[in-house]
Design brief:
Blueprint (H helix, E strand, L loop, with lengths): L1 H28 L7 H12 L3 E8 L4 E8 L3 H9 L8 H5 L7 E2 H4 L2 H6 L1 H7 L4 E11 L3 E10 L7 H24 L9 H5 L5 E5 L5 E4 L1 H9 L3 E4 L2 E4 L2 H14 L3 H4 L6 E4 L5 E8 L6 H7 L3 E7 L7 H9 L3 H12 L3 H8 L3 H15 L4 H12 L5
Antiparallel strand pairs: 1-2, 1-5, 3-4, 4-5, 6-7, 6-12, 8-9, 10-11, 11-12
């Protein structure tokens, strides 16, 4: 009897492993065929534990949002969020300043009781049967960000440790796929003609075997090799100037020979420094799994390496303001609500807190910032949002 139980448990574990491996393969295939993202989000929601999932972008300064791809949400509520409720969502800034790839739930950015009392929850989340969500930032700039979110329904309950762990297993792969898809900027790409198609993209692209030997490079890649400023070819193999980054990529190419699961989180956003001091980012995609196998087989390639110039990594205005004045999370929410929403009654309604509580936080903000009016707080935020103001 005991042997039967052990065998059954192993079978369950194996099925989970196979399920994750298949999902990761689908995630990477979506880098070349964006039409696959809806199906990927369906499987991601089921894997993490929830009825819906989205890839979305947000602009924290303008308080706007856009669903890049989504599964499971009512289209009416998606539109309502974009048109109205993005400005009332009390969790936005908490998610916005979270670390890249770190799973974050509602309770991580504000007390859940306050969230449940907010107008956003009562009018947007609750009518859909949604009780919580787990977010993970994929990329962010000074004022905007892109993220993966899996929503939790009543039957799923609040985000727990298992949901966080499952999110951690897929987020690095989603991030890599999104970054590569962003570099390619194609609607569709046939795997068999992948290398030919990529010759016209701006990012430098190299197809390599498991040893790092270059079997194909697009025009931008050939120009990068010729300049030998970021990387070069030594006896046909890619070599990076930085020894540590060079070893990371060598290990990644070797792992790519064994597929997506073996590649794991290696090669995601590897930082490369040129001899002139410019910073570049390298991302690796395995070509030995999914629909990408045809491209890999055609060129005897194990992986595709994409290299593109990094954007300036600077903190967002809310992060800078928080550190500069030592604000608490709720003080930051009240400050930004004062800018976006307006008066004390409106702030209280948007955040789901009492007007007396808003007044208390405003008093703390005046004391910490040296300002005395709400208009002065608006000017303060504007100054931090303007890169021309020193």
């Amino acid at each position: 009897m005991l042997n039967c139980i052990v065998v059954r448990n192993r079978r369950v574990e194996m099925n989970e492993s196979e399920r994750l491996s298949a999902l990761i393969g689908d995630i990477y295939d979506a880098a070349f065929d964006p039409s696959l993202w809806n199906g990927v989000l369906d499987k991601s929601a089921a894997f993490v534990g929830g009825p819906a999932a989205s890839l979305y972008s947000k602009d924290a300064a303008k308080r706007t949002a856009g669903e890049i791809y989504q599964y499971g949400l009512d289209a009416r509520y998606v539109q309502l969020y974009q048109d109205q409720y993005v400005r009332l969502d009390p969790t936005t800034l908490g998610y916005f300043i979270a670390d890249i790839e770190q799973p974050v739930s509602t309770a991580d950015v504000m007390p859940y009781e306050e969230f449940a009392a907010s107008r956003f929850y009562k009018e947007w989340a609750q009518p859909q049967g949604l009780v919580d969500s787990v977010h993970a930032m994929l990329d962010k700039t000074v004022t905007s960000a892109a993220a993966l979110v899996v929503f939790r329904g009543r039957s799923n309950g609040l985000v727990d440790d298992e949901a966080r762990q499952r999110m951690r297993l897929i987020v690095p792969h989603v991030r890599r796929s999104v970054l590569i898809g962003k570099s390619i900027d194609l609607k569709t790409a046939e795997a068999a003609s992948l290398a030919d198609t990529l010759d016209g993209v701006s990012a430098s692209m190299f197809l390599v075997d498991g040893t790092g030997r270059v079997v194909h490079a697009n025009v931008a890649g050939l120009m990068m090799l010729d300049a030998a400023d970021v990387l070069r070819a030594d006896k046909g193999r890619l070599v990076v100037n930085d020894p540590e980054a060079n070893q990371v990529l060598a290990d990644t190419f070797a792992s790519a020979s064994n597929g997506d699961a073996a590649l794991g989180v290696k090669g995601i956003g590897v930082s490369l420094l040129s001899s002139s001091g410019d910073r570049y980012v390298a991302s690796v995609l395995a070509l030995t799994s999914g629909a990408r196998r045809r491209a890999g087989a055609s060129y005897a390639a194990a992986a595709a390496l994409f290299v593109y110039k990094a954007e300036l990594a600077v903190p967002s205005p809310p992060e800078v303001i928080t550190k500069a004045f030592k604000l608490t999370p709720m003080e930051l929410k009240v400050l930004l609500a004062a800018v976006e929403v307006g008066g004390i009654p409106e702030i209280a309604e948007a955040l789901g807190i009492a007007e007396t509580t808003v007044k208390t936080h405003l008093g703390n903000l005046y004391r910490k910032t040296g300002r005395s009016r709400q208009a002065d707080l608006v000017k303060l935020v504007a100054e931090f949002s303007n890169p021309l103001v020193s």
